[in-house]
């Protein structure tokens, strides 16, 4: 398959939430309590809510910078490529990158809404969580509904509220909610506790909502050396996906809720073959534990519930049929430091070609598996030919992809204002 003929749907990208995002979505009675983007005395912008202050964006928005300028230092909107926070510029960047569809995870509120978990006033937190979801569904996704898969955040401090919000957003057309990988690291019951999480799993099944477990939320589970470098977290973050899978597969969740669907977001696929081999070996060998997977192997049950995505996984792609070709998807991760822009299509095509992927394999990985799992029709407003990398790029010949320093981005930002 030629690069120009590919269709790309990314199920892990990110939005840097723009100033004013709450203005139209918080009820009037609560408007003075809404999160505020405040610029401090040294010019750094952070979101403030209740007694909580969100961290800086750091590596979350470095697309378009020289790599030697990347780091954890805080940044501002003036220094970012506008596609990080502006929906119209995001779509232009998607066109230039050859990407048809995108699912965008949150930034300042945390991958599972844990920013609002920290606030003392949980009534206000619930109002703001719902406002965030309304902004994301109605405004961010709603501006280009045929280009984005909507994703909601949960009021994670109360499982019944999570279930209620899941049903509410599903009625608005949102079939995905980001959830904590390991809720117990936040002081919540673990996924083994069905009395607590059962209503959430049931709501997900009833409303056909996918639970998206994004790496990063479970960092506390990694007891790395206290004097170790930041590399330890960045490299080992994917291992938390295996910890989360263990709780869901070997706990009651997957066996009690056969319709439950989980997406392993940004965890890659390399951990899966070893993990599933180990699960099956353990199941067959440790009969004294009396586990019952309904006449199936644990690996089979895992595949029935799961979808995993990768940015770059050249070795593991060679094991795609051992992993399960139907449960592998692709992600771009724009605008994070792992993302590939503006040549994502060439990058992933090269990896799949080197792994010996057939045209059928490429189709499954690049869009078919994602669209089936999230029940998203990529061709509802276009033909297949209009969804391809080649066609999308023909719409974006004027998109500037110059690499600029933070200072140069700031100059450009100020020049147009």
Overview of the molecule:
- The chain is 38% helix and 11% strand.
- It has 417 residues and is of the alpha/beta class.
- The protein has a single domain (3-415), classed as Metal-dependent hydrolases (TIM Barrel, Alpha-Beta Barrel), CATH 3.20.20.140.
- It has a five-stranded parallel β-sheet. A three-stranded parallel β-sheet has the order 1-5-6. A three-stranded antiparallel β-sheet has the order 2-3-4.
- Strand 7, helix 5 and strand 8 form a beta-alpha-beta unit.
- Helix 4 packs parallel to helix 5.
- The radius of gyration is 21 Å and the shape is globular.
- It starts with 8 loop residues before the first strand and ends with a helix.
- 46% of the residues are buried.
Write the layout of secondary structure elements.
Layout: E1 9-14, E2 36-39, E3 45-49, E4 52-53, H1 87-97, E5 101-105, H2 114-118, H3 122-143, E6 148-149, H4 159-171, E7 176-179, H5 194-207, E8 210-214, H6 231-236, H7 239-250, H8 253-256, E9 262-265, H9 271-285, H10 298-305, E10 306-310, H11 314-317, H12 320-323, E11 328-330, H13 344-354, H14 359-373, H15 389-394, H16 406-415
Parallel strand pairs: 1-5, 5-6, 7-8, 8-9, 9-10, 10-11
Antiparallel strand pairs: 2-3, 3-4
Task: Pick out its properties.
5-stranded parallel sheet, alpha/beta, globular, TIM Barrel, 417 residues
Order of helices and strands: EEEEHEHHEHEHEHHHEHHEHHEHHHH
As an assembly, this protein is: single chain
Structural class: alpha/beta
CATH first level: Alpha Beta
Average pLDDT number: 95
Strands side by side in the biggest sheet: 7-8-9-10-11
The CATH architecture term is Alpha-Beta Barrel
Helicity, as a percent range: 25-40%
- Largest pleated sheet: 5 strands, parallel
Rg over CA atoms, rounded to whole Å, is 21 Å
Q: What number of domains? A: 1
């Amino acid at each position: 398959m030629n690069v120009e003929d590919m269709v790309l749907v990314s199920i892990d990208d990110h939005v840097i939430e723009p100033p004013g995002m709450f203005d139209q979505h918080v009820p009037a009675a609560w408007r003075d309590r809404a999160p505020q983007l405040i610029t401090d005395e040294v010019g750094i912008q952070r979101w403030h809510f209740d007694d909580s202050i969100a961290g800086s964006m750091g590596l979350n928005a470095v697309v378009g910078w020289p790599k030697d300028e990347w780091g954890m230092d805080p940044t501002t909107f003036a220094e970012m490529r506008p596609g990080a926070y502006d929906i119209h510029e995001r779509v232009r960047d998607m066109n230039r990158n050859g990407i048809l569809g995108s699912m965008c995870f949150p930034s300042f509120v945390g991958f599972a809404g844990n920013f609002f978990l920290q606030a003392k006033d949980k009534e206000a937190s619930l109002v703001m969580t719902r406002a965030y979801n309304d902004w994301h569904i109605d405004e961010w996704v709603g501006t280009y509904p045929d280009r984005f898969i909507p994703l909601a955040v949960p009021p994670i401090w109360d499982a019944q509220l999570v279930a209620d919000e899941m049903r509410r957003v599903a009625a608005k057309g949102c079939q995905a909610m980001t959830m904590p990988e390991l809720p117990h690291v936040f002081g919540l019951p673990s996924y083994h506790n069905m009395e607590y999480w059962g209503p959430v799993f049931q709501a997900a099944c009833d409303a056909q909502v996918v639970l998206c477990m994004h790496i990063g939320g479970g960092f506390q589970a990694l007891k790395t050396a206290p004097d170790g470098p930041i590399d330890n977290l960045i490299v080992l973050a994917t291992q938390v996906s295996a910890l989360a899978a263990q709780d869901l597969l070997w706990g009651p969740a997957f066996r009690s809720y056969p319709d439950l669907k989980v997406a392993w977001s940004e965890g890659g696929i390399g951990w899966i073959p070893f993990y599933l081999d180990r699960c099956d070996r353990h199941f067959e060998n440790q009969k004294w534990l009396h586990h019952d997977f309904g006449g199936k192997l644990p690996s089979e049950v895992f595949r029935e519930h799961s979808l995993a995505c990768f940015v770059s996984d050249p070795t593991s792609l060679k094991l795609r049929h051992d992993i399960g070709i139907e449960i592998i998807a692709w992600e771009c991760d724009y605008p994070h430091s792992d993302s590939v822009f503006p040549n994502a299509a060439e990058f992933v095509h090269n990896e799949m070609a080197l792994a010996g992927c057939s045209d059928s394999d490429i189709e499954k990985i690049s869009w078919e598996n994602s669209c089936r799992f999230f029940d998203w029709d990529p061709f509802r407003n276009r033909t297949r030919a209009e969804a391809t990398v080649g066609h999308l790029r023909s719409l974006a010949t004027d998109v500037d992809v110059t690499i600029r320093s933070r200072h140069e981005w700031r100059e450009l930002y100020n020049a147009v204002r």
